[in-house]
Each structure stands twice: as C-alpha cells, then as structure tokens.
Design a protein that fits this description.
This protein has 254 residues and is of the alpha/beta class. It has nine helices and 14 strands. The protein has a six-stranded mixed sheet, covered by helices on one side. Strands 7-8-9-10-13-14 form a six-stranded mixed sheet.
Length: 254
C-alpha cells in the first residue's frame, strides 16, 4: 500500500491511498488533481473518505462521483452532499480489497461532527491535528478539541499523521514563541525548512514527533503552562485551560 499527497489549492493535501490498482482519496476538495493522478497511474477510484464538511475538503465529491461512482464515506452528523455511507465513532471499514482497514474516531472541535480515519500506523485527521498546530475552533469548544487531540496523543508514537494542510512552518513559528528553549522544535524547524526549500511536503509527521514539538499536545508541560499564563495574564488551573489560552493566542499570532 502506498500513500501519496496530491496538492490542491494553495496548501491542501488530498491523500491518495493506493493498492491493487485501486485508489482511495481523503478529502478531495478539488476533483482535478485526483483525476490527473488516477489517469497517470491507471487506477480505479474505490472510495472517497471525508473528514468534515468544509468546501476545501468536499468540493470534488460531485465530479468524482459522477464519473467514477465510488463509495463516499463521511461523518453522520454533518450535512454533506453526495455521501453514500455515513460513519460514527468506532465504525470500521475495509477498503482496497482488504488492504486498508479503517476505524473511525469522532474528533469534534474544528467542526462539530469532524471524524478521523485510523488504519494501523496511519491517521487521516483532516483539520483536527496539524504538524506543530491544530485546527481552528469553528464549531466546537476548547474542551472538545483538547479531548480530541488527547485521543490522538494516546496513539503509538510511530503512527504517521496525514493532515490536510501544509501549515507546518507557520505553526512552528508559534511553537517557538511558546517554547523558545525546546531544542526539538529548533531541530524540527530546520528539517522542515529544508524540505520546503525543495518544495517537498513536511507531512506525514508522526505522533511521537508531535508529542515533542506541538504546543497543543504539550499543555501538561510546565514551560508551556508558564508561557500561556504569562501571555494570557491568567492563572491556568489545568491542561484544558492551557489549551484554551494557547488556541486564543494562536488566533492572533502573526
Ligand atoms: Zn476545515
């Protein structure tokens, strides 16, 4: 099985999962890059996986469905045109002639019904977790997002994280503002700058890397808490309060 990033718009990744001449795509916001990939590789579109309702993740469903008639999976609690199968937390699904087995995680926060797809060793998390960052809270509460990220953080360190945007470098500028003394963030920033200088993706990342460098997975660290308290001017009682303060700070960070 091979997992390939297809670039869309300015910074989206549509993930293509390939085995046996079949292809599954995750969050095709645009049909055109998917059509090019299928044609180049002579692949059959087996299924589409949708994580949440935003247009830059769903915009290609209609055109791809009209031409290829794949199954289209997505969250049960969001209104998304063109889904053939809706999924809730704990659902399982086998695709690509059994080469891809998925379980569904409900991860509210960025949107209220956002889901992620976990296969052994690989997490397709849409706009919930990014490398060195997390999604904005358009519909959910800080407590919901903190809990959703906590479920990801509990996955094995070597789980590869396939998120939907290349936001890593700007996220790392914020991560360094939160933890200027964290050598892992400095080293990782150097690696990511080198990749981007060659126009290569910084994604996938891994849960283990994110636990070391992503401030939103490090709300229980004393240094992160102290900085969040200094910036917010508040006493932050627990990791959930630290998360909420970091997310507010990040919204205004330039
Ligand atoms: Zn989104």
């Amino acid at each position: 099985m091979q997992i390939v990033p297809l670039s869309a718009f300015s910074d989206n990744y549509i993930w293509a999962i390939v085995a046996d001449g079949l292809c599954v795509v995750v969050d095709p916001g645009d049909a055109a890059p998917v059509e090019r990939f299928l044609a180049e590789r002579h692949l059959t579109l087996d299924a589409i996986l949708i994580t949440h309702h935003h247009g830059d993740h769903t915009g290609g469903i209609a055109a791809l469905s009209a031409r290829h008639h794949p199954k289209v999976f997505g969250p049960a609690t969001e209104a998304i045109a063109g889904l053939t199968d809706t999924l809730t937390d704990g659902a399982t699904q086998s695709l690509l002639n059994g080469a891809l087995s998925l379980s569904v995680m409900a991860v509210p926060g960025h949107t209220a019904g956002h889901i992620a797809y976990l296969s052994p060793g690989a997490l397709f998390c849409g706009d919930t977790l990014f490398s060195a960052g997390c999604g904005r809270l358009f519909e959910g509460t800080p407590a919901q997002m903190h809990a959703s990220l906590g479920r990801f953080a509990a996955l094995p360190d070597d789980t590869r994280v396939y998120c939907a945007h290349e936001y890593t470098q700007s996220n790392l500028r914020f991560a360094l503002a939160v933890e200027p003394g964290n050598p892992d963030i400095v080293a990782y920033s150097g690696q990511c700058d080198a990749l981007r200088a060659q126009a290569r993706p910084t994604i996938p990342t891994t849960i283990g890397v994110e636990r070391r460098i992503n401030p939103f997975l490090r709300c229980d660290q004393a240094d992160v808490r102290r900085m969040a308290e200094a910036v917010s001017g508040e006493t932050l009682e627990d990791a959930g309060a630290v998360f909420a303060a970091l997310r507010r700070w990040k919204n205004e960070f330039r």
